[in-house]
Structures are given as C-alpha cells and as structure tokens.
From TrEMBL, chain B:
Top-rank taxon, per record: Bacteria
Name of the featured protein: Threonine/Serine exporter ThrE domain-containing protein
Main localization, broad class: membrane
Family indicated by similarity: Belongs to the ThrE exporter (TC 2.A.79) family.
Coiled coil (residue ranges): none
Location in or out of the cell: Cell membrane
Species this protein is from: Limosilactobacillus mucosae (Lactobacillus mucosae)
Length: 252, 153
C-alpha cells in the first residue's frame, strides 16, 4: 500500500469521526449518525468500515489498519443547523461533488460556526413561545402576557448560566427557580391571576424536547444504550425543573 | 359550526407560532421555519379537533397527532432534503405533556396523592402514545416511500 493512499484513508476515517461527533453533539438520533458515517465511508471507498457509537465517544476503524481511531464527545449544544449542514455535506460527498480534503475542511468550518441567532432573539422567541402556549393550553389571555415576560427573563438566565457553569442541569434548575419566584411575585402583587397557568406556559422553552424525541427514536430503532442514556438525561432535566418549581410553591 | 372553524384557525396560528419559536431556540435552519411551523400548527389543530371536539380520548388523539407529525416531517424532509429531526422536534412541542407533568409534581408536593396519580397516568399515556405514534409513522413512511427515497432523507 502506498503511503499517500494510506494518509488519504486515515483522513477519510477522521472526517467520518468528525461528522459523527458533530451529529451527536448537536442532537441527532443514533440511526442517522451510523447511517451518515457508513455512507461517507462507502463514498470514500473504505473497506470494512466499523464504528462503535455512544453518546460520549465514537470508535471507528477501516481497512484493517492497525489502529482504530477514537473521538471524544463531551458537550451537547443542540444546534440543529449543524446537523443539516453535515447532512448536506455528506450528500455532496456521496455525489462526488467534493473530495475528502474539502469535506474535512468544510466539516471543521461547520464545527467552528457560530450560532445563527443572537441570544436576545432566542429570549424573545422563548417569550413568544410561552405566550402562545399559555393561550393554547389555558385560554388565559391576561396572564399570557406575564408568561411572556417571565419566560424572556428566565431564558436569559438559562443562557447566561449555561455559558458560565460547566455543571449540567443547574441552569435549568435556576431558570425554573426564577420562573416560579417571578410568577408567585406577580400573583402576590395581584397583577396576574393564576400561578398554574403562567408556570405551565413558562416552562415550555426549557422542556427537553430533543433528548425526549431522540430517546424514543433510539429505543425504537434498537440503540438501547444511547436510548436509555438520553431518556435519563431528559428525566433529570425534567426533575431539575420540577424541583425548582416545587421548592418555591412549597416554601414561598 | 362557523365558530369551530374560527377556533381551528386560531389554534393553528398559535401552535404554528410556538413551533417556529421552539425552532429558533433549537437553531433550525432559517428556510425550515415555515415548514416546521406548518407541521406543528396542523398537527396541533388536528389534535385539538380530535380531542376537544370529537372526544376520541387522550391516547388515540395523541397517537394520531404523532403519526401525523411523523409522516408530514418525512415528506418535508424528503422534499427539502434536510434531516427529519429539524421538523419533528419543534412540531412536537405543543403535544408535550408539560402541563400534566407540572400538575402531577404540584399535587405530589401539596400532598394530594390521588390527584397526582391521575396526572401521572395521563403523562405516561401521552408519552407512550407519542412514542408509539412516531414508531408507526416511521413504519408508514417506509411503506409509502421506497428504500431508495428513504436513503435521501
């Protein structure tokens, strides 16, 4: 085997791993991760490609090369835009529109890509989300305006804490604490009427929708390890939110 | 009857709006906003009609709405050549049993265990129905679209 082609094959495996890491980090389901990696390997003409994917690391090898490659995954950011970007790159690569070097360079660029919307827009979106869902669930138009304001503030808290603290579930806990305290405060001031209506609407932006959906899909497609770990992640997030609200309702 | 259609459109618009907002929180690509919003709005309006007007029960209503989300998301994913997850996760938001889960926790803390168990049952039924609905939606997709098309999702 020539050295040059061996380098190219190693690069192809590295590109597969990077694509897999980007997909898992940003909230793709396991079936898609495995499928994309296998398809990329096929397009790069790697023989005997094998990959072991979990939520925290990927191990992959091909061509019976002596060393398998590993990539470590230690954060989850839920940026579905990157999933779409990796998907379209994989599609271009399969159609032979780009070669391995370009693919790897573009994947690295996707990895560095900043968020497409600013924090402020996200907070406003969280406010509008809570406003709409409070009306949908309860029909309480007057309180929905307070729900919007509280959700906006709490989502800002959630984002800020997420940037400064490495601990998981703490930012959800603190944001829910803010929701509950502000809601009880507004009701005590007789500005708003119903604590339950506001809280139901306000916690919706914090609901772990992606882990929940992925847990269900992974379990359905037989990826039991990632399915259960995602279910645990979703449950812990829900418990963090619930604990904070209960804490305020019980003691304030 | 006229009131029904006005309400239906009202529910559609609000669910559409909330789906788009959740899409913004999850950073879905900009050109997917409208499709995800339409899917979320349509499935919630469907759920609303089936559950609140036809009274078909919690489990069946959620099951049908989840199947609808699955099939519509796959159609949008194939049409727009984007991953399915971009459409089905935001569209699911109105159906998530957040209200029931909250009431369950609240009842447990305030000591009314009987009420809490009723809500726990509702949460489990909804979660199970949605999971099963996604599975069935997947099955329908596989029957509707051939393997060749599924490869391009």
């Amino acid at each position: 085997m020539k050295v040059e082609s061996k380098d190219k094959k190693n690069l192809a495996i590295t590109a597969c791993l990077l694509a897999g890491r980007l997909l898992i980090e940003n909230g793709s389901n396991m079936e898609r991760v495995n499928d994309t990696m296998r398809r990329m390997a096929l397009s790069a003409q790697l023989q005997n490609f094998e990959a072991f994917t979990t939520m925290t690391a990927i191990v992959a090898s091909a061509e019976h090369l002596p060393n398998a490659q590993v990539i470590d995954i230690h954060q989850r950011k839920l940026n579905l835009n990157k999933v779409a970007a990796v998907n379209s790159l994989s599609r271009q690569f399969a159609a032979r529109e780009i070669d391995v070097e370009t693919l790897y360079a573009k994947l690295q660029k996707v990895d560095q890509q900043p968020q497409q919307t600013s924090d402020f827009v996200q907070c406003v979106a969280a406010g509008v989300l809570s406003w709409a869902l409070t009306i949908v669930y309860t029909g309480n138009v007057h309180d929905s305006l307070f729900a919007a304001v509280i959700a906006l503030v709490s989502y800002q808290v959630y984002l800020t804490l997420g940037k400064h603290s490495k601990a998981r579930f703490v930012n959800e806990f603190c944001a829910s604490l803010v929701i509950a305290l502000l809601t009880v405060g507004f009701v005590r001031l007789h500005w708003a009427n119903d604590v339950n209506d506001i809280i139901i609407g306000c916690v919706m932006p914090l609901v772990p929708g992606v882990p929940l959906t992925n847990a269900a899909r992974d379990l359905m497609s037989g990826d039991l390890i990632s399915g259960t770990s995602r279910a645990v992640e979703a449950t812990l997030t829900a418990i963090a939110i619930g604990c904070a609200i209960v804490f305020v309702l019980r003691y304030v | 009857m006229e009131n029904f259609w006005v309400r239906l459109i009202f529910e559609f618009v609000l669910a559409d709006l909330s789906t788009i907002c959740f899409g913004i929180l999850l950073n879905i690509p900009r050109r997917a906003y409208h499709y995800a919003g339409a899917i979320g709005g349509a499935s919630w309006a469907f759920y609303w009609a089936v559950y609140y007007q036809l009274h078909l029960g919690l489990a069946l209503s959620n099951l049908l709405a989840a199947i609808m989300i699955g099939v519509l998301s796959m159609a949008a994913a194939r049409w727009q050549k984007m991953p399915m997850i971009i459409f089905n996760v935001p569209a699911l938001v109105p159906l998530v049993p957040g209200g029931q889960a909250y009431k369950m926790v609240r009842s447990f803390v305030l000591g009314s265990n009987g009420t809490a168990l009723v809500y726990l049952y509702q949460v489990l039924v909804i979660a199970g129905a949605i999971t099963l609905g996604f599975g069935l939606g997947d099955l329908i997709n596989r029957l509707l679209f051939s393997e060749h098309h599924l490869r391009n999702r």
